[in-house]
Structure formats: C-alpha cells, structure tokens
Amino acid sequence: MNGVLIINKPSGLTSHDVVNRARRILQQHSIGHLGTLDPMATGVLPLVIGNFTRLAQFYVSSEKTYEGSIRFGFSTDTYDAEGDPTSPLQAVTLQREQLESIAARFRGVITQTPPPFSAKKIKGVPAYKLARKQREVVLQPVQVEIKEFEIRLVEAERATFRARVASGTYMRSVAHDMGQLLGCGAHLESLRRTAVAEFSLDDAHTLDDVAAAAGKDDAGVALEPFFIHPRKLLPQFPSVTADAEATARIRTGRPVNLPELSRARQVKVFAGQRDLIAIATRVAGTLFHPKIVLCS
C-alpha cells in the first residue's frame, strides 16, 4: 500500500499515536507523518504510507497554516493550556488596536526561542525530556518566518488568530512572547492546523472513518477515495507519463528519456493515470535520472 492520507488529528493524541493507530488500521508498518502536531492541537496531519515515505524529504520545509486562540493573563511552562502557570493570574483588558500592533511585530523573518517543552534537541536529548525532569533547558533562538498573522476576534481575555508560517515556527512561542510584551503573561489556548503544503482540512479524514472503510470486505476499493490522488502531490513538479520501456528502466533505477513538457529540473513520473513511479531529475535535454523510485 502506497499513498498519502490526510488525518484530521483529534486533541489528546500525539502525532506518533496517530501513526501507530494508522499502522494497525491499515495493517501497514511503513507509515510516517509530515510535521508534528502537539497533543493539544488538532487538524491536518499528512501521513505518508509505504514507498511514499520516500517523499517526506520534499515536505521538510513545508508552509503551514493555523487558526487558534491566545489566553492572556498568565503564562505557563509549556506555553500552552496543558502546562502549569508560571506567572500570577492578572485581570486584563485587551484592546484590539494594541494587539494588532503587537501582532505586526511578529510578521516577517523574526528571531524566536522554541518552548522548553519541545522536540528541539540539546546535546542529542529532546528538550521536553529535560523539562519534564525539571532540568534546566536553554534553547538557542532561531530565525523563523511568519508570512501572515491576523488577529480575528478579541473578547475578554482571549484573542483568536490565523497564521501562515514557514516550517519550524512555534505558535506557542508567539503566544508566550505576546504576553511578555504586554506584561501580563499569555499562553496558547487552542490550535488547529488547517493546511500543510498542498493539503488542507478539505482533504482530511478522521481515524474512525478510515477504520470503518478498512474494515469492509472490499477494503481496497473503500479506502481509495481517502487517499490523495497522486497527480495532486508536489504540484511544483510537472507530471510526465512514461511508456512501458521507460517504466521498465525506471524500476531498475536507470536513466530514461521522458516527454519534453517543460524545462523543470525535477518531474513526477507516472505509469498510467494514478501510478506514481518516480521523482526524476533532469540530466540533460530530455534525459532524466530517477532520483527516487516509488515502485517496487
């Protein structure tokens, strides 16, 4: 089984929990995910299955879109609602104009310190493991990019937002830092990921729905609509269809001449309409080398 399946992750599960459940449901060991979501967070979690795990390298720097809410009045050690308070509760009166002004300071390329409870590693050890043991966690600031950050609603001590960010950006740190700037403390109260790369909530399915389809007698047919059509993957790469001779060469990792559709450096190679068999890199002219072979 090869493909990309988008799960609408529920709150309370880690990304690894979702992968483990998918492995049991699909009876497929080779499954990975494209971008960790915190247990509290919900939304788009793309899973790559079978040989398609080899496509993960193309999604390492994928853009992500989020919606969520920030609770002002106190900070937490995890920078979200699951942590313990690290500042006294304060009564706050939020002004939309003030929040919009602060939000503007986070747009663009900024320097951000990851949360102490994060997967960032310190001498090979994930920071969250040290933080859980109440060990000192000192993470170095990193450059991230927030392409859009919009305050949508301000009500009492809460503000809802929408953000579009480059890979590696922590919205928990944004919430925490906004609280520091306002002098009242803040943390991320809720977060939903609405898009990763070309995938959105419109493509997402619940684990229960996938399990129901997998349990049918004609599971292969029932599951097919749940997977992203391979032609929709990696839209930045043009698609070419290989003939039988070229397909045979690709299966053994040999260079092939492919139809000249563009001057693209890399292309998706199909055998027929749905069978994505390789990502190929141009050598010269119409000669391509199969960089990643996806067919067995």
Question: Could you characterize what this model shows?
Answer:
By secondary structure, the protein is α+β, with helices and mostly antiparallel strands. It has 3 domains: 3-60 and 199-228, Pseudouridine synthase, CATH 3.30.2350.10; 64-196, Pseudouridine synthase; 231-293, PUA domain (Archaeosine Trna-guanine Transglycosylase, Chain: A, domain 4, Roll). It has 7 helices and 16 strands. It has helices spanning 15-26, 96-104, 127-132, 171-182, 207-214, 219-223, 244-251, and strands spanning 3-9, 31-33, 42-49, 64-72, 108-112, 121-122, 125-126, 142-155, 158-165, 186-196, 199-200, 239-241, 256-257, 266-271, 275-284, 287-293. The strands form 3 sheets. Strands 1, 2, 3, 4, 5, 8, 9, 10 and 11 form a 9-stranded mixed sheet that branches. Helix 1 runs parallel beside helix 5. The longest helix has 12 residues, at 15-26. The protein is elongated. The mean pLDDT is 91.
